[in-house]
Amino acid sequence: MSLKEQLKQDFSTLTLALIAVAIVLNIVLGQTVSLLKLPIFLDSIGTVLVALLAGPWAGALTGLLTNLIWGLISDPVAAAFAPVALVIGLVAGLCAKYGLFKQWWQAILSGVIITLALSIIAIPIRVYMFGGVTGSGADFITAYLLATGKDLFSAVIITVITDNLIDKVATALLAWAIVKGLPRRFTARFQRSSSVIG
Amino acid sequence: MSTHFSLYQPGSSYLHRLHPLTKLTFSLAAAVVVFGGPGGWLAALFPGLLAMLLLWRAGLAWRAALTIFRLLALLTVVLFLVHGFLNPHNKSILLSLGPFGLGQEGLAYAALVALRLAATLAASLLLTVSTQPAHLVQALAEAGLPYGLAYLLGSPLLLLPQIAGRVRSIQAAQQARGLKTEGSLLQRARALFPLAAPLIFSTLVDVEERSLALEVRGFSAPNPKTSLNELVDSPAQRTARWIMILLAGLLLAVELSWRVYASH
Amino acid sequence: MLIQINNVCFSYPGGVEALLDVSLTVQPGEMIALVGANGSGKTTLARHLIGLLQPQAGSIQIGDWATSEHAPSQMARRVAYVFQNPDEQLFCQRVWDEVAFGPQNLGCTPAEVTSRVKSTLEWLNLQAEEQVNPRDLIYSIRKRVALASALVMQTPVLILDEPTAGLDSREQAQLSQVLASLRLQQKTVIVITHDMDFAAENLDRFIYLQNGSVLADAQASAFFSAEFLSQTSDLIAPQMVRLSFSLGHTQPSLCADQLLRNVSTG
Amino acid sequence: MPAIEVSSLTYTYPGARAPALQGITFQVEPGQLIGVVGANGAGKSSLCLALAGLIPALFHGQMQGTVKVCGLDTRLHTPGQLAGKIGLVLQNPASQLSGMRYTVYEETAFGLENLGVPRSEMPARIERVLQQVGLAALGERSPYTLSGGQQQRLALASVLVLEPAVLILDEPTTMLDPQGSQAVFKIIREAVEAGTTVILAEHHLEWIARYADRVIALAGGEVILDGLPEEVFSSPLLLEAGIGWLRCTVAAQQASPLGLWPASMPLPVTIDAAAAGFSKAARKLRDVDPDQ
Prior knowledge:
The complex is a heterotetramer of chains A (198), B (264), C (266) and D (292). Chain C is of the alpha/beta class. Chain C has helices at 42-49, 72-75, 95-105, 110-123, 139-151, 169-184, 196-202, 220-223, 226-231, 239-246, 256-264, and strands spanning 3-10, 19-26, 31-35, 57-62, 65-66, 79-82, 157-161, 188-192, 205-210, 213-219. In chain C, helix 6 links the parallel strand 7 and strand 8. Chain D has 292 residues and is α/β, with parallel strands linked by helices. Chain D has a domain at 249-285. Helices cover 36% and strands 20% of the residues of chain D. Chain D has eleven helices and ten strands. Chain D has helices at 44-51, 79-82, 104-114, 122-132, 148-160, 178-193, 205-211, 229-232, 236-240, 247-255, 271-288, and strands spanning 4-12, 21-28, 33-38, 62-69, 72-73, 86-89, 166-170, 197-201, 214-219, 222-227. In chain D, strand 9 (214-219) and strand 10 form a beta hairpin. The longest helix of chain D is centred in the C-terminal third of the chain and has 18 residues, at 271-288. Classes of the chains: A mainly alpha (198), B mainly alpha (264), C alpha/beta (266), D alpha/beta (292). The A-D interface holds A 12-14, 20, 184-185, 188-189 and D 13-16, 58-60, 99.
């Protein structure tokens, strides 16, 4: 199947509607998590779900647009991290494509892979644009590491990875459980979901 | 539409009447100049001041300033603390507090980062405060953005309050079956799936009906689309856009070639 | 379990669907239809009974528990609530786990959970669906799973929000049997519904809300008086009642046998 | 030319064991109101999706037989091409909003914009259809602040504005209160009077029995009855299929062995017909036994 046909299939009206609500889920689920006062954000669950159902391109687009829209409507700082969200969707889609979302432990592994991949993009943005801090809880880790003599770059590396590891593993597990629980008739309409449900 | 989900401030100032692409180009150009430009104080100060001036003439400066303060206050404080005390480059200590010294270099760096963020934010607010999101999406669609992408940029904003409203009714439904949402970290973590899953399932299963409704309203009709709302554009604005793009591109090219030259 | 609602006032932050000084007493074992237009306060009142909403004025007692002093997860021991949209509640991979969720939260022993779930699934003949993913079932069967997940709590009070919406006549008949056995078990059942035919045949007392206050509270035959029905456009009277009035009967019939008796006496 | 021609339509969803629709054949003349009844799972929704051309285009699966709407074979035309000819209204009002428009007026224009209708023609068509559904006064309101009933009428408006020859509604009143339902039914009747062919799938049997020109009953994906409301709603097949009768029909059937229903009259499917029959029987009783 040529790339053009693959893209056309990946972006049917159904997929577009899926991406639209996935963007909303990325933004809204933060509310559910803060309700429970849990140390995760779950702000890329929609991105990973789309990646599992409609492939890496659709997943990447979901992540990118989530941060752009979030930047447009309330927090332009999020827009700066749009490339990070793009990588999350892309890598999640690729993990699924190569069978890394079939079992629950593979989902955890994918969560780790996603964390490492996103750090490559997140660290330079955080250092060069934000001087290593973003006003979130993770800044304490950076401050502590700087105090123990680490230079800014390595301090941020450790901060980004620890900050994202729990969240991305939890996100991958939740996305895996959701796709497993979706109605058969719904997932059947997404050819790529077979990589998860098999 | 509940306004707290959008920075848009309805109004009829000259800024509101400017074509969305003109404002978008200014915001992007400003970001390129601030982060891609020569990088000194001037590169950050000039776009920021220009943006605030334009906002001030449209009577939106006060709201923009408030938004900038709300978004950057905490970040700026953390910047000054972290870099003031902990920045490895700190040489000349202005004030020492026990083992830590407040370094001048760290403070200067923190100030520069904060100023850059404020300038970029002011430029982006010039767009977001004075442009209704649907008009920006329409402008992009008319400029050739694929219609599917325009839908993805436009619809989440309106779907947000609808789906956000479900969080509360799902919490109610699960609490009615004895789910506890307070207590130990483990208990709260266990409550995550019963609260998150129904929200995701009901939203995803809803997608099918939503996509059918779009199809029936001609979403994928092959013909070129028209639009009810007319976006006023003018040759002057069109040339202004090209000038801004050229300027930003020029600055970026100069900076890149300088860095390449300087590194040899 | 006696329910006492004393002068309850409530309005949402946006001021929508308020409750204005609602006072009601519900005796144990009563079968109640809570009726009125959308936005009249039916669901708001029902949510107060399990403590999900707290009144700005007045109080609510479920037996000896005041809803202001018990968290919803506690109230779930006394009041079970079947929500209108099953999809905003179901989340497990199998029907069995879905129904078991409630009792597990109440701290029942595994043996107790198993016996309760088994008997409830049999009661609603969902045994065949026990291992099925709820989302692979059609809407009306998902509603039955949501009903089962409330009945399994074995609470003295039960609230059903629009239980007949989307059901066909065979499924409605099955719901009637469930209500009949709840009546035998002396449970207090409150049904929020627009389906007057179903309500007239299965429930006794009708409470009519309009703009947050109780405008009528009577047994079925008194409730469906010609005079009351002429005043309100929120309700469409049961077919048998409309038929009785168009035949000139003074007393409204609530079911076919009653109507035929009135016809035969001329 | 009939508005709708369905011949031996059989359809199986992808991955499903049994077909959702089996050997369905019927024709519909323009301007008719067809009621579709059936137990849950009998295939009402699948038939509606097939008539709207969304099956098989969007659902894939296996389909035999043909569906022609306004002479167009739904397998040879994409949903985008059929949009101007066939309208579809679904059960959940909120999920039929485009998500792209901020006012009721703009939401109604969404379909016109997609079909490329010139901007100059839009205001007249929008105002007329908003008048038709009783939302003319709410033109500037956000669709997301409307009640369920108002949103469903907006869904109707945003489809009727395209002036489809065929309008299909899949249980449009399930989530509405009586007032909302009556408003939707009123709009449907007016659309039929204006010549639109309407297919209405509904559990609300009373309204269909009174206003439908014809009723199709489904069970297990097959057509078990296709005829006038009086015939269909008094047929025992409806009871076996779990669709059930109207309560006034049941009352009349119980009355006939007691001599309380005139033997000459067919069983009633509307309140008025039942009232006529029972009062006739009551008069006959009084003539036979004057001192009662």
